[in-house]
Write a structure and sequence with these properties.
Shape: globular
Radius of gyration: 16 Å
Distance between the termini: 41 Å
Structural class: mainly alpha
Number of helices: 11
Bound molecules: 2'-deoxyguanosine-5'-diphosphate, fe (iii) ion
Largest sheet: none
């Protein structure tokens, strides 16, 4: 498996700029560390981390075209902010160009930007690793969130979504309703725990 990872790593390097590739390696190892902490499959977590942004450097018009050709639905917010499509298109490219057949990995890649309600362990590991990998330095509360990540996945997802929505609300761009719905789910789930 690790050999496959190296092969895919070499290929991916041609399709990402230097900064994005460095980020990708950070996410791969951070996802691996979280997998160790939570008893999740290490190889799967690292592969999801490696490929999560594989569509990040594809031009917007090409991503839209790929969606059209592959019958991937584009929402209004995605049309306005085509960068959001790199998650769904990333899952498509991981399947078609990197021969990933594992549906859990493909799903985690597809939802890594907005999250979605009731994410599974790998979804949460990737979502969190993307936010806390060592190369990240802009988000507020990173030291606190990095510590939380190794204590409770759900609480960490909730905190990341809270901070992300705060950040997005301070800017003019539209927010994907999925991000808001996901935050509401993780906030409200605490009331459901008896
Ligand atoms: O691809 P990365 O930069 O590694 O990370 P990502 O795929 O999580 O994307 C991060 C960016 O996405 C960050 O600037 C916040 C933004 N984002 C997350 N949810 C939404 C969003 N942007 C918009 N416009 N709407 C959202 O709902
Ligand atoms: Fe991304
Ligand atoms: Fe990323």
């Amino acid at each position: 498996m690790i050999k496959d990872l190296e092969k895919r790593q070499k290929k991916l390097q041609h399709y990402l700029d230097k900064g994005r590739y460095q980020h990708t390696l950070g996410v791969m190892y951070t996802a691996g560390a979280l997998a160790m902490a939570y008893g999740y499959d290490l190889d799967k977590a690292m592969l999801a981390g490696l490929l999560h942004d594989c569509a990040k450097c594809i031009p917007h018009d090409k991503k839209i075209e790929l969606c059209r050709k592959n019958h991937i639905e584009i929402t209004d917010v995605e049309r306005e902010n085509p960068f959001l499509l790199h998650a769904k298109v990333g899952a498509l490219i991981a399947r078609k160009k990197y021969d990933v057949e594992d549906e859990e990995i493909l799903h985690a890649i597809a939802v890594h930007t907005t999250g979605e309600p009731a994410m599974n362990t790998l979804d949460m590991i990737l979502f969190i690793a993307d936010y806390i990998e060592p190369g990240r330095d802009k988000a507020q509360n990173l030291p606190q969130i990095r510590e939380m990540a190794f204590q409770n996945l759900e609480n960490t997802v909730e905190k990341i979504l809270f901070d992300t929505l705060n950040f997005l609300n301070s800017k003019s761009g539209r927010i994907d309703p999925t991000t808001e719905i996901t935050y509401e789910y993780y906030k409200n789930r605490r009331n459901l725990i008896v």
